[in-house]
């Protein structure tokens, strides 16, 4: 009987030990699964024994290595962004100087062919400057040293200001943008200059790639910039990639823009804790509509 009792006790101990061990392994797995990527939390051991502690030390060593690699990658990215911002600024100066010299030369009486070549060169330099301005704007939007002055900004007057600035382009196309704000006093906690850049880029995108006048609508905490697009353009647009830098949906976009305007808008929106998203809507008989929505976080609407 004593042997039977010992055997039963041994089996019970093994079963209990296995249960405790299994619970500890599940706790460790849950910790690794739920641990945020940027967290400094480290795995702890609640069971006695050298094997569990050795496992925890090995896992924590890997977590330390991953964090070190992440920090190094972030540092390199920030250094690159600073260098890109400086480079874009430095290149603009000689480019503007070259434009000035060409304009000065064109003030004199020139043979027709020379004037035509200089005019073409000036136009090409102007195109390069436009692309460079977009690159500079993207670099500034992602500059880790840039600070944003967040304050309540009335959105409707800012939208109106941007639209007035683009009036000649709308008039040339025969478009009349529609503005519909449910709350004319709607405000966002934002840097005014950065918010204006976002709105300007969204309006510019509608002008360059739209197939009709845009509608700017505010409902709740969101502002939607919607404009019709051609069937050909709609077939080429991937809304999930629209804010990627240098993304161009088709060759036409590539010849008319840098592919950075919406990337700049997205970077600035994220820096101010705003959400910028894109959807492509198809309505029977009405064609395709590209809608770009700028929305505030729950804590960012004023």
TrEMBL record:
Keywords: ATP-binding, Kinase, Nucleotide-binding, Phosphoprotein, Transferase, Two-component regulatory system. It is found in: Cell membrane. GO terms for cellular component: plasma membrane. InterPro entries: BphY/WalK/GraS-like, HATPase_C_sf, HATPase_dom, His_kinase_dom, HisK_dim/P_dom, HisK_dim/P_sf, Sig_transdc_His_kin-like_C. The keyword Aminoacyl-tRNA synthetase does not apply. GO terms for molecular function: ATP binding; phosphorelay response regulator activity; phosphorelay sensor kinase activity; protein kinase activator activity. It comes from the Bacteria. Coiled coil: none annotated. Its EC number is 2.7.13.3. The keyword NADP does not apply. It catalyses: ATP + protein L-histidine = ADP + protein N-phospho-L-histidine. Residues 86-298 form the Histidine kinase domain. SUPFAM superfamilies: ATPase domain of HSP90 chaperone/DNA topoisomerase II/histidine kinase, Homodimeric domain of signal transducing histidine kinase. One of its GO terms (biological process) is osmosensory signaling via phosphorelay pathway. PANTHER family: SENSOR HISTIDINE KINASE GLRK, TWO-COMPONENT HISTIDINE KINASE. This is Sensor-like histidine kinase SenX3. The lineage of its organism: Bacteria, Bacillati, Actinomycetota, Actinomycetes, Bifidobacteriales.
